[in-house]
Amino acid sequence: MTCRLSRPSSLVMSCLFALFAPLAEASPDTDMARAAQILDRYDRNQDRRLDLAEFDALRRTIFNGIDRDQDGKIRAQDVAQAAQARGQHADGQRLMKRDTNRDGFVDWPEFKAQTQGFTRADRNSDGHLSASELARLIARLPAGLSPASF
Question: What are 114-148's pLDDT values in tens digits?
Fold first, then answer.
């Protein structure tokens, strides 16, 4: 399969909505399309892959999308509400495992501290995520955390 990647003419809020709007059915083709959109938005050095810093920018968008009241804290109910708003189900318990100080919420440092997702997704261990590695990661994300959800 050939995936043609192109830069959008502008990155305005409507493009962000389109980037993170849920798609009706997940498939390898839609996952590759999402990966191409993510690269268009987050690949700052335009090498058609994401390094850890670029991936963190994507994760920040996901964090902010879950943190509905923008207080810098994600609670289990925030995950449930974000998932429900998109017709998905998630109770937030998986994410709450990142609450290392047990204060009842996950803040950005706790959310960001878990880099194993990047490491596991980087199948060839080159320190970057290619479009195919991103597509594979997207296909495996739990409800409520998918970049297609925001």
Answer: 767 789 899 999 999 999 999 998 887 655 455 54
Distance CA 118, CA 102 (A): 24
CATH number of the domain encompassing residue 27: 1.10.238.10
Residue whose pair of structure tokens reads 């993170």 in the numeric block:
20
> C-alpha 108: how far from its chain's center?
14
Q: What is the pTM of this model?
A: 0.70
Under 8 Å between Cβ of 71 and 125: no
- Specify if 111 maps to a domain: yes
With a CB cutoff of 8 Å and minimum separation 6, the contacts of 74 are 63, 66, 67, 92, 95, 105, 106, 107, 111
- Alpha-carbon torsion, ordered 10, 12, 14, 20, to 10 deg: 90
Residues spanned by the domain of 141: 20-149
In 10 A of CB 59, how many CB atoms?
Answer: 21
Give the model confidence (pLDDT) of 21-34 as tens digits.
Answer: 443 345 668 889 98
